[in-house]
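Supplementary Note 3. Input sequence used for the single-chain structure prediction.
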Amino acid sequence: MNTTDQAEEYFRGAVQSYSSTSGFGFIQPDPDQGFDKLLLLHSKSLRRPEDSLEGGDRVLFSTCRIAAGVLATDVHAELVEEGIAETQAETVDGQVTDFIATRGFGFITLNDRREIFFHVRSLKFSENVLQQGLAVSCSLVNTEKGLQAQNIELRSPSLASPHTTDHLASATLARDARRYDEAARLYEIGMRESPSIQLILSYAAMEKNRHRKADARRIYNEGIRLFPGNAKLREDAGVLAASMRDYRSAITRLNESLQICRRSDQGGEKGVLVWLARTHYEVGGEASLKECVRLYQEALSLFGKGATRLPDLDSLKLNLARVRTQHHRGSLTFNFLASAGFEIVKARLLDRATEGADLIVDLKHPELQEGYGVGRYLLIRCFFKSDISLADLEDFDREILVWSKRGLADEQLALLVVASLPPELQRLISQRIDDRRRLSPALVPVQQTDIETGASPVAVLRAALDRWLYRRDLFATNSPVEGRRFFGRDKPLAELRDSIAAGVPSGIFGLRKVGKTSLLKEAQRRSMEQGDLVIYLDLSRLPSDVSDCRWIYWKLAGGLREQAARLLGGAFRWRLGGEFDDFLDIPSSFPVATAFDSDLTRLLQALRKSPVSARPRVVFLIDEIERILPSSLGKAGFEGFFEFFSYLRGVAQENREFVVTVTGANASICETAQYQGRDNPVFNYFKEVYLQLLEFPECATMLRELGRGMGIRFDPSASERIYDFTGGHPFFTRQFCSFISQQYPARPLIVSRSMVDPLLSQYLSLRSDDFQEIAERLSRDFPDELGICVLLAQEGGTVTRARADVIFSESAGSSVRHLTGYQILQVDPERAYIKISMLSEWLQKRYGRNA
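The predicted structure, written as discrete structure tokens, is reproduced below.
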């Protein structure tokens, strides 16, 4: 099957499994659509990130092709959820002509011989049992795949009389031909001469679709007079009244319908309860909202084990009604968000309902999003209790992480609605914002009194955001970044993804803090969204007393088990992965490497047999590889590192689905032919990718995006000057901008070139530790590279090409190649110079400049 350029082609299927926590699942496409495997489903594949999915849900989806196979995209519910609609489709008659209960769907042939698809979830009354040949009535809705039957119910012989058919058929023909006045005349004749429930429902549906609701109400009222014992007429009349905002009449009619359903065998009690709950929700007010909760709960009790759940819209209304009636601050927060124009898409009470509730909003406010760098969705915790502790904030952090992974929360920002801001809570929130070591989300508190007395909701929110976000220093972080904090790097990301797709081992090399780890973390995130099992291992966190590879095998195996759980569930026997919670629990005699091989080999075999497209790959991303290698200065490598790399290379050569990527300062791991007299197993093995410095457009984007979240804007000349100083090195750029922001604390702030120029010398004096770290690293591991930099700095940071050739001839050729790969050294036809001018300035101060 060719899925290229099929963005507008949709397919049908059922969700086989889906976890809202991990954001992963699978779709089983329906037969005869060209698919022979399960398709991966990721939360980012959903048309609406706020949608809930469960196993068995029917979905429509499009597809896209990637190197490893086909992915499902634009996934959304096949069935149109019934909301408080302006109109309802008319009822039509037909016969079940193709249905097998175990597959859950079939076809109805209408009286006009059209064949219409349906699913068992379309049954109006789940207690009904369908079989081929049964006469049914249903409504029709349009989907991307055409007409579909909804609200299917068994047709009662009493719905029509023998004399009705001609009038109803004639009116239907006129209506379909859009001769609406003639159709209305024929319907009226039918109502006088041979009225039937079917005719009344069809006539009222036509008038509603013509936006003649008053006429539709008249028709329903006449039908109720003629057939006082019919629940359907009263239900539809109530729904119509609700759409006209006549909630009192709507509740009266729906309650009448409910009583008829309960004392007769007409069925439909669940549907009426849901409509009553919806109507009470629209009425609002504490009493109506409590009645809404009661009615929804009563409807849920009738669904029965294994039956369909409430539609997402009704689940949201139920949860919002609970939040609004649990505590007055919940109602206050709801009104505040609604008045601000935000759409609430998720709501839930906390596990301890008396403590608070979480709400997710779709901001729908471009000015706020652009002004503060906020994402589309925002998570808000409304605390009902007054005493808020550090544990409460940490619990909220975990919730932010879960929802941000699904794309339903901003990972950098969340709101707190609180009774007040006591000093201890202010201190906790301030500590989070001022902490440069952790990338904690900024929690912006909004006090109840501000909501109650503020000029407008947006003004209150702006004041809170200004007060707290403008204190942030988004430039100061030293931690790796991913997601919305990750800027640029499109080319190396594409290279890395292509290498993973092609099964090519790669080495990402570059200076410390140039962004290697961030690149790996972002590659991990994107690869996992395409179904790969990606295990990231940072060797810089090796315990100091670990000197062999057993710990590495143990960590990788644990990652494998965790990643594989979403694909294989618990049906897999592990030898090492997850079998020892603590590394020290592993007996010294336990064959760690052999157990690891057993896990990895059988996992790769299981993945090859897995009926999934795209076929997952197992990807190892190993950061800071020098940590376990011997150094040129005599540091011994890890015991077993030869065997470790030999093993990884062997597995990769046997399995195209297994890929290894490493990072390091330079490519010595694949340039060194021998270590300690033994052949290097990965000599010339890894594809070398030197991580370049940011290009100016990427650097300017980073300044703009981070700056706006702090109330800072850089004019073009300032951005250019900062780029000149830093050469586009992301860490130095961030640190220098952090220094600038500290010198000019007023917000909002526009940074100009005249403000930047005087700060360079001061920055180099006060922040020399960052440059000293680079020099010490080069001195320890790569002294030739440092020597070249010092010689260039001593001659002013730039020399002629002829002079450069003399300097370079005194060093190993690989040193020059490494420095140009880092982009520390720029070699042109006429000259050679240190590209990062602030590094050149620091080296001149540190090592002296020749006269």
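The chain has 31 helices and 28 strands. The two ends are 72 Å apart (CA to CA).
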